[in-house]
Amino acid sequence: MKKRLILLAGLGVGYVLGSRTGRQSYEKLKAQAQDLWADPRVQDTVEKANQSIREKSPAVADAVQTAADKVNSAAGTPGATSTDTPEVKDDVMADPMRDLDDEGPSGLSEDT
């Protein structure tokens, strides 16, 4: 159903933009779109979607917060415990005399 609506919207936009008959075709298309939007079946579907979003938004917000907490703890940001911070094996700044201009666009040294 979503693909059909996208297709119809695309066809409608293409029709309006490509039409040489001008304002009359635009007004006709606009009236049809308004009639479609005012259709009780469409409004019922919109209301169901809104209700579903309202019901599921707290769970989604909790999931996002949990994922953000995991990322923060893995990155070692302030507030993360030392047991959550991954062990650093290779110190990127081990050689402070390394010339940063020798690095390529990907950030890797050309001699590696």
Summarize the structure.
The chain has 112 residues and is mainly α.
Strand and helix layout:
Layout: H1 2-18, H2 23-38, H3 40-75
Overall description:
With 112 residues, the protein is mainly α. Helices cover 62% and strands 0% of the residues. It has helices spanning 2-18, 23-38, 40-75. The longest helix has 36 residues, at 40-75. The chain is elongated. The two termini are 52 Å apart. The mean pLDDT is 76.
- Describe the largest sheet: none
The overall pLDDT, averaged over residues, is 76
**Percent helix range:** 55-70%
In total, the number of strands is: 0
Taken as a percent bin, the fraction of beta residues is: under 5%
Shape: elongated
Count of discrete alpha- or pi-helical segments spanning 4 or more residues: 3
* Succession of helices and strands: HHH
Any low-confidence stretches, pLDDT <50, length ≥5? none
Give structural attributes.
single chain; 62% helix; elongated
